[in-house]
Specification:
The complex is a heterodimer of chains A (116) and B (114). With 116 residues, chain A is mainly beta. In chain A, 0% of the residues lie in helices and 55% in strands. In chain A, the strands form 2 sheets. In chain A, strands 2, 4, 5, 6, 9, 10 and 11 form a 7-stranded mixed β-sheet that branches. A 4-stranded antiparallel β-sheet of chain A has the order 1-3-8-7, with no helix packed on it. In chain A, a hairpin with a 6-residue loop joins strand 4 (31-37) and strand 5 (44-50). Chain A is globular and about 45 Å long. Chain B is mainly β and 114 residues long. Helix content of chain B is 0%, strand content 51%. Chain B has strands at 3-5, 10-14, 19-21, 24-26, 33-38, 44-50, 56-58, 64-68, 73-78, 87-94, 102-104, 108-113. Chain B is globular and about 45 Å long. Chain B starts with a strand and ends with a strand. In chain B, 38% of the residues are buried. Classes of the chains: A mainly beta (116), B mainly beta (114). The A-B interface holds A 4, 6, 31, 33, 40-43, 45, 48, 50, 55-56, 90, 92, 94, 96-97, 100-110, 112 and B 32, 34, 36, 41-46, 49, 51-53, 88, 90, 94-95, 98-102, 104-107, 109.
Chain lengths: 116, 114
């Protein structure tokens, strides 16, 4: 299984809502990532979890809260978002400790988020 | 710090023509280089990667890329374009000193005309 799955596929939320994005992989990867992608731009890294610990936070506003319940799951909790947070949110995973694969990331299909 | 430059934000070819998407990188350490493809409303899919083994790398869907250290390039080619190749293509390099970060180029949109 070389797939990263993400749910939901689409999400529309108001600025006062609380919602969560979910990501799952069964490749035995020990690093998982959240990216934000705006239209016609490359993905921007938000968070990295390595061995279930938060390793990188790219100065993301606290209205985004990541969680890694186990090595296969990654969540992104959303609260009090702004319309400018509307974007495609991508999850990815990789195997960080093998020299030749550590930056080789496998991406999920993304969640298209619209904040009204 | 690493950087990636993709020349041409938009490349248009005819079906059956050669596809050439350009990527130049800068890195003070031996780079690991990647090409990803993104179809509309989808995630990124790894096309191919260079990790210091063979300089000519073959990927999926008939794409290949050649690592040229002297030119700091990793251009993506396909001999004959197909309509299904229309997508956004991103070149990326591993970020120095990080097991996790990739530095992406700005992307090249490939359109294929019938």
């Amino acid at each position: 299984d070389t797939e990263v799955t993400q749910t939901p596929k689409h999400l529309v939320m108001g600025m006062t809502n609380k919602k969560s994005l979910k990501c799952e992989q069964h490749m035995g990867h020990r690093a998982m990532y959240w990216y934000k992608q705006k239209a016609k731009k490359p993905p921007e890294l938000m968070f990295v979890y390595s061995y279930e610990k938060l390793s990188i936070n790219e100065s993301v506003p606290s209205r985004f809260s990541p969680e890694c319940p186990n090595s296969s799951l990654l969540n992104l909790h959303l609260h009090a978002l702004q319309p400018e947070d509307s974007a495609l949110y991508l999850c990815a995973s990789s195997q960080p400790r093998r020299l030749t694969t550590r930056n080789e990331q496998f991406f999920g299909p993304g969640t298209r988020l619209t904040v009204l | 710090a690493q950087s990636v430059t993709q020349l041409g934000s938009h490349v248009s070819v005819s079906e059956g023509a050669l596809v050439l998407l350009r990527c130049n990188y800068s890195s003070s350490v031996p780079p690991y280089l990647f090409w990803y493809v993104q179809y509309p409303n989808q995630g990124l899919q790894l096309l191919l990667k260079y990790t210091s083994a063979a300089t000519l790398v073959k990927g999926i869907n008939g794409f290949e890329a050649e690592f040229k250290k002297s030119e700091t390039s990793f251009h993506l080619t396909k001999p004959s374009a197909h309509m299904s190749d229309a997508a956004e293509y991103f070149c990326a390099v591993n970020s120095e000193g990080s097991n996790y970060k990739l530095t992406f180029g700005k992307g090249t949109l490939l359109t294929v005309n019938p």
